[in-house]
Specification:
The complex is a heterodimer. Chain A contains 4 helices and 5 strands. By secondary structure, chain A is an alpha/beta fold. The longest helix of chain A is centred in the middle third of the chain and has 16 residues. Chain B is elongated and about 150 Å long. In chain B, about 35% of the residues are buried. Classes of the chains: A alpha/beta, B alpha+beta.
């Protein structure tokens, strides 16, 4: 699992590459817990190369969800593969989180 | 044992009788000589025979009573030899002097008295030789090999054979036997080189043994001198120096004593080196054995400190041991805390702490010179592996060049052995701890196993078959049922995120919630709302639970269900001959932890037909991977049901599980797998 973060103006783009399992979700949790993140109001997660997400990985996003909502930070997933999207959908997360098909769409929603 | 005791008493009797007869014979002959006639023995052959009997019985007696060498108490043996045999020589001297004094004082010459004294001394000599001979045998054969044992046996045999010369009254000085005897002397010289026991004496013991050996040597000399003085004497009728056996035995005892004396004397200066080496070895052994003896780390450091100080002969030392990443001085020798502090500051300044450092001339270093320490050599030995430091050992000596290469090697070996021992001690402790955790996990696993129902109610209107497999000792999957009324049954399945103990706890909690809430008989969506509210208070932030609850009413021939983020239910409808997934919305439990959760849960009602099949499972089934990293997937599960719907519930389950195993391959279980197959039946129960 490779997690990279880039900052553009007010937007943070996190790119997930590989499989987000129990061990790599710890690294993701650290990344999302970084206080610097709270200084931005848009977080875009690029899931293009995310091949698998475990319940632990989902748990990390869920645990930060409320915090981002309270701070009015938008969390948007884009370029998600079907099988990963299916996992989000089964759990019902697609109704709680914003999942869009590509970067442009993500930027449009973020800027709303 | 009885035989030995009998033989011993027989030998003692034989010795006494033969000695007494010898004395009588001599006295008789002496008397007859005094009364006239030439000096001649009455029965020379009988006399020789008696002599041989006496010598042989005394030697054999000593041979039988010689004990096996016990331990390495060589001083004890030497003392035994001196006190029991050496004394005989001094007795004989005393006896002879008494005789001389009496004769001089009374101014009379009594050949009879002289003969008695001479003969008593002969007896003492034989006793001395026999005792000394067999004690030397034991020491000589210390650490023996086969060759030495054979050489010794032959020596004893040959020596015994020389008694025959006496028996047949041969003169051993004749030219025929002289070369043979000379060879025997060389043999004795060869045997005298076997002195391994001397090496085991410490310096102290060597000095004591020198005294004892000297005393024994003196005994030999006294006897030799006494009998030599009567050689070919006109006063004495029999000359025991003619007995070759005695001469050879004397030669052996004397030479061996001399050899032992000389070897002890010359090895005296080197013995301290050997003592140190053997002590080092013993200490290495103590260090490496501390694990078996269940010693603590502190005891290991005690041993290290003592051993290194001794091995290097250090005049001062201290040891710092790491405790919670903090160095603490645990051992001190001839040094004050102030001095340690001063040296440590200096080392910090030089950046020398925690590395191997040797300074064999502290005065040359201005920093150390300023401290005006009473020591000249200094060595630092860190006890560390590449990953961690156990402690640091500091040794000081009051001479220059105090730590030579040899000493440093020994010290390093000690510190390395200590690292090994402490590491091993920690490993042993850890493995014990692990063993305990495993035991506790086993109990947890048994408890969890008892939480999952093994048998479902058997009824004529449906068949149910279950499969549950945990990836670890305890898992997060669960299922359960509750008979709500005569015609209604509630079935729940769930999956707690994560694995292991925490998942197992939440699973138990969920079971409690299920039984607690369903006693009140509520619709599935209401159950999910209340369960979410209950779980919100106790589930940690990153955890959530997916679950699905089914309430089957066979009187109504239908079921009601709600899905909270759990895998879609697979269903085969017999009327339409179609297998499909119920696509319903529903959010997992514990994701939203307030009232708004009720907006995210849906309920559905479905009428079933006989022969319909419902497959309920957890994500461990559809997310199971093949060796090529492919997921099993919903499609393959659906396909399997299409192939097997006509079978009994049990057979459908087996078919799916077998297919799953074929797909993943053996020993490829990463997530808990749970599968329930329910087949609805035509027949109605008798109400």
């Amino acid at each position: 699992m490779k997690i990279t973060r880039e900052t553009k103006d007010n937007t943070i783009i996190i790119t997930l590459d590989g499989e987000l399992d129990a061990s790599s979700s710890v690294a993701l949790d650290e990344e999302l817990s970084d206080p610097e993140i709270m200084a931005h109001n848009k977080i875009l997660v690029n899931c293009e190369n995310l091949n698998y997400i475990s319940s632990a990985g989902l748990g990390v996003f869920i645990s930060h969800l409320q915090r981002f909502e309270d701070a009015q930070i938008k969390l948007i997933f884009f370029n998600m593969q079907d099988k990963v999207r299916n996992v989000f959908e089964i759990l019902g997360l697609d109704l709680l989180m914003t999942i869009v098909s590509n970067y442009e769409e993500a930027m449009t929603i973020a800027d709303e | 044992m009885l035989y030995k005791t009998n033989a011993k008493s027989l030998l003692v009797t034989a010795a006494f009788v033969s000695w007494a007869l010898l004395l009588a014979n001599i006295l008789l002959a002496a008397e007859s000589t005094r009364q006239g006639g030439g000096p001649m023995l009455a029965f020379p052959y009988i006399h020789n025979f008696l002599t041989v009997i006496f010598i042989a019985s005394v030697f054999l007696y000593q041979r039988l009573s010689a004990e096996n060498l016990k331990g390495i108490d060589f001083i004890g043996y030497l003392w035994n030899l001196f006190s029991k045999a050496g004394i005989a020589a001094y007795l004989s001297v005393a006896l002879f002097l008494a005789y001389r004094l009496t004769t001089d004082y009374a101014n009379l010459t009594s050949t009879l008295l002289l003969h008695i004294v001479y003969h008593v001394n002969f007896g003492l000599l034989v006793l001395f030789l026999a005792k000394a001979f067999y004690i030397w045998r034991q020491l000589l054969l210390y650490h023996k090999n086969k060759f030495l044992q054979i050489a010794w046996d032959w020596f004893e045999l040959l020596l015994g054979a020389t008694l025959l010369l006496t028996l047949f009254n041969f003169n051993y000085t004749s030219y025929v036997f002289l070369p043979l005897l000379a060879l025997l002397v060389f043999y004795i010289l060869f045997l005298c080189t076997n002195l391994k026991w001397v090496a085991y004496l410490t310096f102290n013991k060597k000095s004591r043994s020198l005294v004892l050996l000297g005393a024994i040597l003196l005994s030999c000399y006294i006897f030799a001198r006494f009998f030599w003085q009567f050689t070919d004497s006109k006063e004495i009728l029999v000359d025991y120096t003619d007995v070759g056996f005695l001469l050879l035995a004397m030669l052996f005892v004397g030479l061996y004593t001399l050899a032992a004396f000389l070897v002890s004397l010359f090895s005296l200066p080197t013995s301290s080196v050997f003592e140190q080496k053997s002590e080092d070895l013993l200490n290495f052994q103590r260090l490496s054995q501390s694990i078996q003896q269940g010693q603590s780390e502190a005891q290991v450091y005690d041993t290290l400190f003592e051993s290194t100080v001794k091995a290097s002969d250090a005049s001062a030392a201290w040891l710092e041991v790491s405790k919670n990443n903090n160095m603490q001085t645990s051992h001190l020798l001839n040094i004050t805390h102030e001095q340690i502090k001063a040296i440590s500051h200096l080392l910090q300044a030089y950046k020398l702490h925690n590395i191997d450092y040797i300074n064999n001339n502290l005065d040359r270093n201005p920093g150390f010179k300023e401290l005006s320490l009473p020591w000249k050599s200094f060595i630092i030995l860190p006890i560390k592996t590449s990953t961690r430091t156990f402690g640091i050992l500091y040794l000081l000596k009051d001479i220059e060049n105090g730590f030579d290469r040899e000493t440093i090697n020994v010290l390093r070996t000690f510190t390395n052995q200590t690292i090994l021992t402490t590491e091993n001690l920690r490993l042993v402790a850890e493995s014990l701890q692990n063993e305990r955790y495993k035991e506790e996990l086993k109990i947890a696993s048994q408890v969890q196993d008892s939480l999952i129902p093994k048998t479902f109610p058997v009824d004529s209107w449906f068949e149910i078959s279950t499969h549950a497999m945990a990836a670890k000792e305890v898992g997060g999957d669960f299922y359960d049922f509750l008979q709500l009324s005569e015609s209604r049954i509630a079935i729940i399945i769930g999956d707690v995120s994560g694995k292991g103990i925490s998942a197992a706890f939440h699973m138990a909690q969920m079971k409690g919630i299920f039984h607690g809430l369903m006693q009140q008989d509520m619709p599935p969506s209401e159950f999910m709302k209340q369960a979410n509210s209950a779980l919100s208070r106790c589930l940690e932030k990153t955890s959530f639970i997916t679950s699905a609850l089914y309430i089957i009413d066979y009187r109504m021939k239908g079921f009601m269900f709600a899905r909270a983020g759990h895998c879609h239910t697979l269903y085969y409808n017999a009327m339409m001959d179609d297998a499909f997934y119920f696509q319903t919305d529903g959010l997992g439990l514990g994701i939203i932890r307030d009232k708004s959760y009720s907006n995210h849960i849906r309920e559905m009602y479905y009428d079933y037909n006989p022969d319909d099949v419902m497959v309920i499972y957890t994500d461990g089934i559809i997310e199971a991977r093949s060796p090529e990293n492919e997921e099993y997937g919903e499609d393959r599960l659906q396909y399997m049901l299409k192939q097997t719907y006509h079978l009994e519930a049990d057979d459908i389950k087996h078919a799916i599980i077998n297919d799953l195993l074929d797909f993943t391959g053996p020993d490829n279980l990463y997530d808990d797998q749970t599968l329930l197959v329910i087949k609805f039946k035509d027949s109605q129960p008798n109400i």
